[in-house]
Amino acid sequence: MAVMKGADAVVQALEREGVEVVFGIPGGASIPLYDSLYSSGIRHILMRHEQGAAHAADGYARVLGRAGVCSATSGPGATNLTTGIANAYMDSSPVVAITGQVATPFIGRDAFQETDVIGITMPITKHNFQVRSVAEIPEVIKKAFHIAQTGRPGPVLIDLPKDMQEGVAEIEFPEEVSLVGYRPTYEGHPKQIKEAARAILDAERPVILAGGGVIISGASAELMRLAEFIPAPVVTTLMGKGSFPESHPLSLGVLGMHGRREANHAVTESDLLIAVGTRFSDRSTGMVSCFAPEAKVIHIDIDPAEIGKNVKAHIPVVGDARRVLARLLQVLAEMKRKGRSREWIEKVKLWKREFEPELDYDDVPLKPHRVIKEIMEFLGEDDVVTTEVGQCQMWAHCYMRRSKPRTFISSGGLGTMGFGFPAAIGAKVAKPEVKVLDVAGDGSFLMNIQELATAVENSINVIVAVFDNRYLGMVRQWQELFYDRRYSAVDLGSSPDFVKVAEAFGAFGIRVEKPGEIKDALKQAADSGKPAVVDFVIERECNIFPMVPPGKCLKEVIG
Amino acid sequence: MTEEHFIVALVEDRPGVMQRIAGMLRRRNFNIDSISVGSTEIPGISRITMTVHGDRLTLEQVMKQLNKLIEVVKVSELRQEESVVRELALIKVNVKSERARAEVVQYASIFRARIVDVSKQSMTVEITGDEEKLRAFIELMRSYGIIEIARTGKVIMARGARNVRVREMK
Ligand SMILES: Cc1ncc(C[n+]2csc(CCOP(=O)(O)OP(=O)(O)O)c2C)c(N)n1
Ligand SMILES: [Mg+2]
Fold this sequence. Notes:
The complex is a heterodimer of chains A (about 550) and B (about 170).
Chain A: E1 2-5, H1 6-16, E2 21-24, H2 31-38, E3 43-46, H3 50-64, E4 68-72, H4 76-90, E5 95-101, H5 117-121, E6 127-130, H6 137-149, E7 156-161, H7 162-166, E8 168-171, H8 190-202, E9 206-210, H9 212-217, H10 220-229, E10 234-236, E11 251-254, H11 261-269, E12 272-276, H12 282-285, E13 296-301, E14 315-318, H13 321-334, H14 343-354, H15 368-378, E15 384-387, H16 391-399, E16 408-409, H17 420-430, E17 436-441, H18 442-447, H19 451-457, E18 463-468, H20 473-482, H21 498-505, E19 508-512, H22 518-527, E20 532-537
Parallel strand pairs in A: 2-3, 2-4, 4-5, 5-7, 6-7, 9-10, 9-12, 10-11, 12-13, 13-14, 15-16, 15-17, 17-18, 18-20, 19-20
Antiparallel strand pairs in A: 1-8
Helix pairs in contact in A: 1-2, 1-6, 3-4, 3-17, 8-13, 10-13, 15-16, 15-22
Chain B: E1 3-12, H1 17-27, E2 32-39, E3 45-54, H2 56-68, E4 72-78, E5 83-94, H3 98-110, E6 114-118, E7 122-129, H4 131-142, E8 146-151, E9 155-158
Antiparallel strand pairs in B: 1-3, 1-4, 2-3, 5-7, 5-8, 5-9, 6-7
């Protein structure tokens, strides 16, 4: 127990949680906090927009699997964070956001830079707190980290009125906290697991569907054992990409609207779907009424509210993916298995060969496929790819093989343009020893391009690969396919010159127009010793195929 | 099949908890017919009673989504036939004539309601009961001219051995 200032208590509590980095921007309502940070061991990375701070914390969290922290001042600082918080919420990412707030006596009086950030962020956080006394600060922070990082992770916001930062109190740091209303279930119910095992042994055409929960719970090894034991092909969602090596013979890649045909086919024809850590997003399932129409569904998820929300589960198992899969493997090993014909596996492998996409184009302007292929060759399996949103994201999603969890970081649920670049910054801060590359669209990159200053000032040497089609390409594609090519508000024109922008910020910039130059440009970017922007001039109206049109079944693929 | 379901939630009594619940219900498009809040046998824990219209799946989702809120400690469904359901209403009626006055007093006594306020123009009746009883009484009062009605929303408690309580509290 010691008497100290609230702001010091915040910083010490953060240190006790193992926080090494905070991404943020200070302001009037958080100056006391920043004063305490100034003399602490915590590294603060000054971002150029609070949205960037939230995404950076998110990218950091996704790469490391523990909380990323961002901070903003009250009012506009806090509202600027909201897109990043909503993004983390949709993708179950443990972000802790700390906002300054006007002093308690001013709350409710429309004081300068007062916003009801608690009200605003209620539906986009797992939980939020407004500190009401200096003495409760350590407990609030401990609870925030506990909630953010356990169960189904998610963002938690702490609103810190200025007088709470400045005030002094007897401070005690609790070793643990208890929350009566929050007790996630980790162990799956033995009866359900047994039933799942029976269904697996009875199935003729089983498919494993792995979602982001597999990555969050660190269940990749168990997933692999299960796939090989059955054996069953594995498809993943966008969030699950990397949970199972896409180079593995049993991998069918991603499913969904821009999934691989083999993945969508397999799910549609399966008689048993083993879904692990997925919420059955509409982008993954297509029309639900014809999603896996013949399959019995085993749904393993730590969030009971996901069971039966979008897709009916025949055998629900609530629990942590890793623990449930480990137990399931034990149960399976103890049961008698009958021989299963290899017909299904052979069929699936045939699809896989048949639908192998062509990537090796020599066209000028560049085909995005070729760029993806060369990026794949350029990166090692531990390097991290982040993405923006749009066609660029879906090209990476569909064609780029990833083999390890936490090496493919993308905005899945919210689909946030502008996510990839600041997330890459966060990822690189988390893992300075690996290459981090943002697969970017020109439109998306412009949404947080100011973070080039952050990257340059802090020598955070990430590579932004701009898939430069001078279009809001994904919207243009929909207009082409479903709105008679009426290209309404999608042409980005000729501004800016991304190479010059990069250089103006002090980063490395290079333009690539021919396929033969891709490899060397990537190498130059990596060797530049600076953050780098590689501007790939791609075919303007190239579409991302295959595609399941909205409202259609996974099997109704076009392109 | 859509029907009426009763949900009881025990929640931590903290600032904003009602907003969290109301916001979640609206956001997820759940249809709540009645909601009432009050304190419980444990300090710091409030009891929320709500009635939801919908099929089984909707009911399940409402309960699960409620449970996900950190400050919600416990969520239970109570079946009407196994429970006591009550609501209190205050009804202010026009009673201009002596005869009207006498009749209202009489009806109130038949319904075991109480006259809690009287003026030259009006009488206020307090009535407690289940939905049917309240509806029937309010219907009767309409002919006199209802000035105001204030209802609490339903509260519900399981009969006999079944309890909705917080198991352990620090
Ligand atoms: C913040 C935000 N605004 C708008 C959208 C809608 N939207 C989805 S994809 C897209 C186009 C993205 O363009 P670009 O980044 O150039 O990628 P491309 O599709 O051309 O590869 C738009 C506008 C969005 N997802 N996010
Ligand atoms: Mg574009």
